[in-house]
Amino acid sequence: MHLVISCNLKPHSRTRILARQTFDVLCEWNEPVDLVDLQDYASALERDDAEDPEIQELSAKIAAADSVLLATPIYHFDVGSTTKHLIELTTKAWKHKVVGILGTAAGRRNYMALTGLANSLMLEFHCLIVPYFVVATPESFDGDVLTGSRALRRMDDLTRTASQWAAAAAAMRGSRQIRRSH
């Protein structure tokens, strides 16, 4: 199962549009997918307690997913604090996940802003990072729809690769455990 997470707490955000459209693409392909909007968990994130039942619910959803696709806003060349906070509160759930990252930013120069998050997930939790980042700028949207050809092409590459890698990782888990080096 894929889990798409919208990591923006603003009610009307392009990040939410990006997450919803990613979810819709996976649904069109008949992929098992769930969508989490962190706006629905804002009070739990504010309480800042990893033992909070709502945070535990988020952790369980992340842990159960074969891939996690994070849609995050980019501010000042870094991912939004809500995205970082989610990961801090759900650390145990991220081990060995296939992760794709989508961002919304003011301009295309923010493309590299996602590498810090990717590196953290890769080094800390041994995640497999899908190498197709999506960065959507205001010009990528027409109202409430992602229409930019570059962003749509990247989304297609990201979702296809995440699907393939998630299936491969699930098959590996089914046949043997990941061996740890000494």
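The record above closes out task 2.4. Task 2.5 opens with a second protein, given below.
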Amino acid sequence: MRHAGQRLATVLLTLLGLLFLTFVIGRVMPLDPVLSIVGPDADRSTYEQVRQQLGLDRPLAVQFGYYLRDLSHGDLGKALLTGHPVRDDLARVLPATVELATLAILIGTLVGVPLGVYAATRRGRLGDHVVRLISLFGHSTPIFWFGMMGLLVFYAWLGWAGGGGRIDLAYDGLVQSRTGLLLVDSAMAGEWEVFQSALRFIALPAGILGLHAVAYISRMTRSFMLAQLSQEYILTARVKGLSETAVVWRHAFRNILVQLLTIVALAYGGLLEGAVLIETVFGWPGFGQYLTSSLLLGDMNAVMGSVLVVGIVFVALNLLSDALYQVFDPRTRS
């Protein structure tokens, strides 16, 4: 119980510090949310009235205290962008980004891990150089460039992929939203034409995000595997006559599994947070586009709510990684 209490206190302090820094930065930004509401031609009295209604005339510490008071009741405030509660906006846009990032991390893991293992077992040879080149290209090339080139080739020229948005307009609204994940909802409803349309639109942005994840995961997998393949127990296993497949996958790979869990978890969190550029390029109605629009408008309620979500996601993924450590590595259970 004491250990759980310490972990909970650490999590709360981390999120509190994140909120405070974001709050302070938001208040010193040159963007004025009052002007976004009243417009540049409003008179001084109207400006001051709206400024008082938003509470921006109070000291910074008082404003933050009121925000924490409302937050303790589950109130994230209203978004200037939509006029709706931020909590409702986040519940609406977050599933689209979760669906995109989940498909991307599946691609990144299922492709990146085998590539990293393959490169490590062929160190210094042609296969290793090819994988390292792919990793370098995927990690260093701007993701928005990939997005624009993907739209040009697979949408404009070949017509294989969908364009902007999440689904063809002809199928929009045909499936009742249960989970917010369009692929899951259409499959549950048996609407396979809607499913195919949604898959056609998500394949390209998810594939580009997945390529970025492949570059990172394959590079880290290769590094971890090289460290294990140089250990004495690997030499012992080979001397015993075990096949190379057994040595690589049953011995070396099992010992990097715990490290890979952290890498994959952090990569997933990074995809959720870093999908901003891809969502902007593809007009994807998700969390990243919502956060970008809120920042440009100076809508700090929406920005604070979005930052809180990102913080919770990363903290939750770290806690999940710690829990999985104890499942796969008995030495950590004490």
